[in-house]
TrEMBL record:
Pfam families: p450
SUPFAM superfamilies referenced in this protein's UniProt entry, alphabetically: Cytochrome P450
Name recorded for this polypeptide: Cytochrome P450 hydroxylase
Gene Ontology molecular functions: heme binding; iron ion binding; monooxygenase activity; oxidoreductase activity, acting on paired donors, with incorporation or reduction of molecular oxygen
Family listed: Belongs to the cytochrome P450 family.
Keywords attached to this entry: Heme, Iron, Metal-binding, Monooxygenase, Oxidoreductase
UniProt cross-references to PROSITE patterns, sorted A to Z: CYTOCHROME_P450
Length: 403
């Protein structure tokens, strides 16, 4: 057996400031061309699907949220409290119990019940007279915030605040942000804790048909959910369900603007929306690197990863490392397994809700935005945490008739 520290590995710097757009894809492809493993600044980078699934599913590997926080000195206050309580950082029986309590709210059937509301939000955001927009600010940012507000039972006018908090709280997974913007992240966490407490108090006196009311019912049963667990589950949903969908929807429209034939196919047949979403998720995952820490010595492919070793599973290479994987094609027959939502015990709880939001958005927009094309330079974000877009100027033609 060879210890991983003894390997001569190619280097891949996932914190490089110019690592966006096609530069990012090209460098990853070059690294993967030299093998399934690379050396990153704080971790090893796993570059194929087989090994990615192995580490994501391994019980000997856990999410290293606490360890990363400690590296950057975030070991006190509300941010540490949130990291320590985050369902991502739980394991064993407690993790199973928490997922069992919140899971029913995120089944495919549960997600489907919010589709009429999603369509209503899209209609509210749509300007039928326009033939151009900055898409991130106009649609991608407000749409998932409105949806998550509805799921939680929060007032729709709170959606802008929910988006801002989600954006900042999610930066706990971004090593560059932890190094440079820690006080702002900590302030956002404190603000969202206060908001969730107020929302719980309101729903306790006036319960509704929403996730918060359901969690409060479980809390009142005493032995199922503590108050602190209830607060942190709501915070997890709020933080994890807005910025991620915004980023994925923004990339979806960017991809289709660059592939007009694919967009025309979807416009002609909105029933392709589910396949289109699957291809967007595969081709441009907005969680490019998912970290795991080995909690004991792990052996894989003849290599020993000692306890304490951190690996970053690259969903981008895992998803693209298939036949014709570099082609964006919503009609292609592909293996449905992708790494965008993770795998194993910590598979993303909100995956079904996110898919429903994306499907409704693409089915709504494609017939209304014929001849979709870029209308200026794309503002890319970084790939260290959630890989989103800061701006996406688009233009299109007036549709022939009303969709």
């Amino acid at each position: 057996m060879t210890i991983v520290t003894e390997l001569d590995l190619p280097e891949f710097d996932y914190s490089a400031p110019d690592l966006t757009g096609e530069v990012y894809h090209r460098r990853l492809a070059e690294a993967a061309g030299r093998g399934w493993l690379a050396q990153g600044p704080l971790s090893y980078v796993v570059l194929d699907r087989e090994s990615g699934e192995f580490f994501l599913r391994s019980r000997a590997a856990a999410f290293p949220g606490r360890q990363i926080a400690e590296l950057f000195g975030a070991v006190t206050g509300r941010l540490w409290e949130q990291i320590d309580a985050n369902i991502l950082n739980q394991s064993g029986e407690r993790h199973r119990r928490l997922r069992a309590l919140v899971g029913p709210a995120f089944t495919p059937r549960a997600a489907d019940r919010w589709r009429p509301a999603m369509r209503g939000f899209l209609q509210e955001l749509w300007d039928a007279k326009a033939t151009s927009c900055e898409f991130v600010g106009s649609v991608a940012r407000p749409y998932p915030a409105l949806t998550v507000a509805a799921v939680l039972g929060a007032p729709p006018q709170d959606a802008p605040r929910l988006h801002e908090w989600s954006d900042w709280v999610q930066r706990q997974f971004d090593v560059r942000a932890l190094a440079t913007e820690l006080p702002r992240i900590e302030r956002a966490v404190a603000e969202v804790y206060d908001y969730v407490e107020a929302l719980l108090a309101e729903r306790r006196t006036a319960p509704g048909d929403d996730l918060v009311s359901a969690l409060l019912a479980a809390e009142e049963q005493g032995d199922r959910l503590s108050h602190a667990e209830c607060v942190n589950l709501v915070l997890n949903v709020l933080a994890g369900g807005v910025d991620t969908t915004q980023a994925q929807l923004s990339h979806a429209l960017r991809l289709f603007a660059g592939h007009p034939g694919q967009w025309a196919l979807l416009a002609d047949d909105p029933g392709l929306a589910a396949r289109a979403v699957q291809e967007v998720l595969r081709y441009e995952p907005i969680t490019p690197f998912t970290a795991r820490i080995c909690v004991e010595d792990v052996e894989h492919r003849g290599v020993v990863f000692p306890a304490g070793t951190i690996v970053a599973i690259c969903a981008e290479r895992g998803n693209r490392g298939i036949e014709a994987g570099e082609e964006f094609d919503i009609t292609a027959e592909r293996d449905p397994r992708i790494l965008t939502f993770g795998a194993g015990a910590h598979y993303c709880l909100g995956a079904n809700l996110a898919r429903a939001e994306l499907e409704e958005a693409l089915a709504f927009l494609a017939p209304r935005m014929p001849d979709l094309a870029p209308d200026g330079e794309v503002g890319f974000g970084g790939v260290e945490g959630i890989y989103g877009l800061q701006s996406l100027p688009l233009r299109w033609s007036e549709p022939h008739g009303r969709p």
